[in-house]
Amino acid sequence: MSAILNISRLTHDFGGLRAVSNFDLTMEDGELYGLIGPNGAGKTTVFNLITGVYRPTAGDIHFNGRSLVGMPSYKIAELGVARTFQTIRLYGDLPVLDNVRLGRHFQVNYGVLASMLRLRSYYEGEEESRRKALELLDLFGLAELAYEEAKSLPYGRQRRLEVCRALASDPKLLLLDEPAAGMNPQEVQELMDLIIWVHDHFKLTILLIEHQMRVVMGICPHIVTMDFGEIVARGCPDDIQKNPRVIEAYLGAEDKEAT
C-alpha cells in the first residue's frame, strides 16, 4: 500500500478562534478511517479544508502526492476526492437518474461547442453518461426509482442516492460527513452494510465522520478522535473505547446526554 492522503500540521483559524490545530493524518490506499469527536471539535472543518472550501492557516494536505492547498474545490474533485454532507444536498425536483448523471460531469468527453451544436459526440457522451448512471443505480438498488423525483424517496434511500452520486465521479477518496444522521436503527444497519460494500466493491479509501458509535466502532478499523480542534486519540475501536481522553471528550459526553 502507498499513502493516498497525507495531512501534516493542518491548522485553521476563524478570526480569533482556532478550529483545527496541528492535525496530522496519513491514510494508505484502500483504508477506512473514522473521525469522531463532540460537536464543535473541528471534524467538518477538516473535511472543508481537504475539499478546498477553506484554505488552511498553516499546514499542508497532499493527495496522491499533490498539494491541495489553494486549489479550488472543483479541481480537487477532478483529482478524485468526493464527499457527502451532514445535510442531504440532492436536487430534489430532479429525477434520481439526473442526480447521478450530474455527479458524472467530470467524465464528460465532449466540449461546449459539441453541446451547443448538438454534434454526434454530444449525443454519444450523453448516452454513455446515462448508461453509467443506470449501472450505478442498479448496484445501489435504486434502478427502479430512476425516474422518480429525488425528494420523493424515503430518507434512508436519499442517503443511499447521495453516496451513489458521489461515486459517479469515480473518486479515489470518499469523505462521508455524518451519513447516519436522522436515520432509524434499521436504516443505520443498512448504511453500515452499504459503506462496507462500497469500500470493498470500489476499492475506495474512505474517511468517515459519524456521531453514532455503533457505526464507527462497527465498521472502521482505524479511528481518530478530535476535541477542541486537536487530535486526542488514535487507534482501533477497542483502544478508542478504553481511552480516558475519548471517554471524557466524547463517549462520556454522549452518556451524559443519554441520561
What can you tell me about this protein's structure?
It is a single chain. The protein has 259 residues and is of the alpha/beta class. It has two domains: 1-80 and 171-259, P-loop containing nucleotide triphosphate hydrolases (Rossmann fold, 3-Layer(aba) Sandwich); 92-170, no CATH class. Helix content is 41%, strand content 24%. It has ten helices and ten strands. The protein has helices spanning 43-50, 73-79, 96-102, 112-117, 120-139, 155-167, 185-202, 213-219, 237-242, 244-258, and strands at residues 3-14, 17-28, 32-36, 58-63, 66-67, 81-83, 173-177, 205-209, 222-227, 230-235. The chain has a six-stranded mixed sheet with strand order 6-7-8-3-9-10, with helices on both faces. It has a four-stranded antiparallel sheet with strand order 2-1-4-5, covered by helices on one side. A hairpin with a 2-residue loop joins strand 1 (3-14) and strand 2. The protein is globular, with a radius of gyration of 19 Å. Mean pLDDT is 90; it is low at 254-259.
List the helices and strands and how they pair.
Blueprint: E1 3-14, E2 17-28, E3 32-36, H1 43-50, E4 58-63, E5 66-67, H2 73-79, E6 81-83, H3 96-102, H4 112-117, H5 120-139, H6 155-167, E7 173-177, H7 185-202, E8 205-209, H8 213-219, E9 222-227, E10 230-235, H9 237-242, H10 244-258
Parallel strand pairs: 3-8, 3-9, 6-7, 7-8
Antiparallel strand pairs: 1-2, 1-4, 4-5, 9-10
Helix pairs in contact: 3-5, 3-6
